[in-house]
């Protein structure tokens, strides 16, 4: 009997705990959300997966995940939150493919909109003199590539990785090796459909609601949820000559990069990366790249030096196989790379653009994809990039790096200064991306703490040396840092927020504005 009583009281205690927990949950989930009439649905149970992102450092649990079937579902939900007024703490975050780094697509105790569920409009490619494609804001770029290629067309400007959504990259900028010619992805959009923080569905373009159009591009999700975009297309090539060249001198490397992006008749893609203490790298390339001169290349020794690799690509069609070799030789002839280090590869256009996915598959199979990614992306004015390199590659990161370090120039003239993105004040600036992966629970130089410490050293140096650097995919936790980030554009940013999302409902994970409760 004694045992029975103690088991019974234990079970009662357990039940009362569960009841208390449930009542806590239900008392905090705004019950009015349950009353919304939607074509899709709100899920209150499986919310953990949207409290995670590629960065793997932040986990903010929402109350609910909206799986919209239609644009109206998203509009109804936002309008409902708007009508709850300033005293509700509820916020809404659009989640594209969740490849943010510091919780930017999360909403603590809010509603996360799973944009990939939005299947309307059906993707539609339009040919003619100025071809374009209409896509949903939750569409992945890889799907847009595949669909437009059926018509011999493709978007002009890319990111290095295509398993990202249109809404996610347009909220930042979308930069890759084509940006020097076409500008970032935000310079290649004709029209958007946006749901503002008041739940209004608005079409906007250069000529219609133009302030909203420019606000949303590079707007970090602050002014509206992009539900549809019209993306500019061009004829897609069949193949790509993909070339890597090494330099030991930073000045020569950047001079050649700048020469290439300044000429009209040049490569179609120009990037570059830094190689720190990686003697084995040349061997790794052999699978896809062949040295032009195998004997000389095999004798090349990096000697532990920091090297700089220029990466270029030239597109061509199958009928042009001979002339493209001459063309590439002509473009390479003025460059001053280490002559034994010319490596070539030839791949299909789709394999070239989707190249990072091939690495993803390999890393996933080794359990190395879902690790913390303390990435740091910077935009550095051309006049300061040498000072930056001297300190960062010569002093802060001398022994090792924990992932690729990209470095390449882009031209400011290809960016529209009416958009929301904040960039350096010089005609040419460099994207420098430290794409680090941390080894979980390591306390060594490959651990999260060490990498975050190195990132901080880099940022502190940029600040103390007054380099005029802007963060790309910016992350700040204090509003004064956001003010500094936007500089003279801060007031316009705040004005736009008051106009399109006055209750500060949207994209709380960016931590720019707090909902006033
Ligand atoms: P999410 O992470 O889901 O969202 C990002 C932000 O946009 C959030 O604030 C979210 O609320 C908001 N948002 C999402 N969808 C919408 C929408 N429809 N309307 C309004 N706001 C929305 N970037 C480059 O520029 N160039 C690169 O080469 C590049 N390479 C990358 C490679 C990898 C492996 C990864 C992981 C990222 C890379 N990025 C690159 C960064 C990438 O562009 C951004 O992280 C982008 O935000 C990710 O898109 P997403 O769909 O995952 O967006």
Please give a structural write-up.
- The structure is a single chain.
- By secondary structure, this protein is an alpha+beta fold.
- The chain folds into 2 domains: 243 residues, Uridine Diphospho-n-acetylenolpyruvylglucosamine Reductase, domain 3, CATH 3.30.465; 234 residues, 3-Layer(aba) Sandwich (Vanillyl-alcohol Oxidase, Chain A, domain 3).
- Helix content is 32%, strand content 21%.
- The protein is built from 16 helices and 19 strands.
- A 9-stranded antiparallel β-sheet has the order 13-15-11-14-12-17-18-16-19.
- Strand 5 and strand 6 form a beta hairpin.
- Helix 13 packs antiparallel against helix 14.
- The longest helix is centred in the first third of the chain and has 27 residues.
- The protein is globular, with a radius of gyration of 25 Å.
- The relative contact order is 0.13.
- About 2% of the residues have low confidence.
- The structure holds flavin-adenine dinucleotide.
- Its cofactor is FAD.
- This is cytokinin dehydrogenase.
């Amino acid at each position: 009997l004694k045992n029975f009583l103690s088991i019974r009281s234990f079970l009662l205690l357990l039940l009362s705990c569960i009841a208390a927990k449930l009542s806590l949950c239900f008392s905090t989930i705004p019950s009015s959300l349950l009353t919304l009439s939607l074509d899709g649905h709100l899920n209150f149970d499986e919310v953990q997966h949207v409290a995670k992102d590629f960065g793997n450092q932040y986990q903010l649990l929402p109350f609910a995940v909206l799986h919209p079937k239609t644009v109206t579902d998203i509009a109804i939900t936002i309008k409902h939150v708007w009508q709850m007024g300033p005293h509700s703490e509820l916020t809404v975050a659009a989640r594209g493919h969740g490849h943010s780094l510091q919780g930017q697509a999360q909403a603590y105790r809010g509603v996360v909109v799973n944009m990939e569920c939005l299947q309307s409009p059906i993707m539609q490619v339009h040919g003619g003199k100025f071809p374009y494609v209409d896509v949903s804001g939750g569409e992945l770029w890889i799907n847009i590539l595949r669909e437009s290629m059926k018509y011999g067309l493709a978007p002009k400007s890319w990111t290095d990785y295509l398993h990202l959504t249109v809404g996610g990259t347009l909220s930042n900028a979308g930069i890759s090796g084509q940006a020097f010619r076409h500008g970032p992805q935000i310079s290649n959009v004709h029209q958007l459909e946006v749901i503002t923080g008041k739940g209004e569905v608005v079409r906007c373009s250069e000529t219609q609601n133009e302030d909203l159009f420019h606000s949303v591009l590079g707007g970090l999700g602050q002014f509206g949820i992009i539900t549809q975009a019209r993306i500019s297309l061009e004829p897609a090539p069949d193949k790509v000559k993909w070339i890597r060249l090494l330099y030991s001198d930073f000045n020569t490397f950047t001079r050649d990069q700048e020469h290439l992006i300044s000429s009209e008749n040049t490569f179609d893609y120009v990037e570059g990366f830094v190689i720190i203490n990686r003697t084995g790298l040349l061997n790794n390339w052999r699978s896809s790249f062949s040295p032009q001169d195998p004997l000389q290349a095999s004798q090349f020794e990096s000697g532990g030096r920091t090297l700089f690799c220029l990466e270029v690509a030239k597109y061509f069609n199958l009928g042009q196989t001979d002339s493209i070799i001459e063309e590439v030789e002509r473009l390479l002839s003025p460059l001053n790379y280490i002559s034994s280090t010319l490596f070539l590869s030839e791949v299909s256009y789709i394999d070239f653009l989707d190249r990072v996915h091939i690495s993803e598959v390999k890393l996933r199979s080794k359990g190395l994809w879902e690790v913390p990614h303390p990435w740091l992306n910077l935009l550095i004015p051309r006049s300061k990039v040498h000072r930056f390199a001297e300190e960062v590659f010569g002093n802060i990161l001398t022994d090792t790096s924990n992932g690729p370090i990209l470095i390449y120039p882009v031209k400011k003239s290809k960016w529209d200064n009416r958009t929301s993105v904040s960039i350096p004040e010089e005609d040419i600036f460099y994207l420098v991306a430290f794409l680090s992966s941390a080894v979980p629970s390591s306390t060594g130089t490959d651990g999260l703490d060490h990498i975050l410490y190195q990132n901080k050293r880099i940022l502190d140096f940029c600040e103390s040396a007054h380099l005029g650097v802007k963060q790309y995919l910016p992350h700040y936790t204090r509003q004064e840092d956001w003010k500094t980030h936007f500089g003279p554009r801060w007031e316009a940013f705040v004005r736009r927020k008051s106009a399109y999302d006055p209750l500060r409902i949207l994209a709380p994970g960016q931590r720019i504005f707090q909902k006033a409760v």
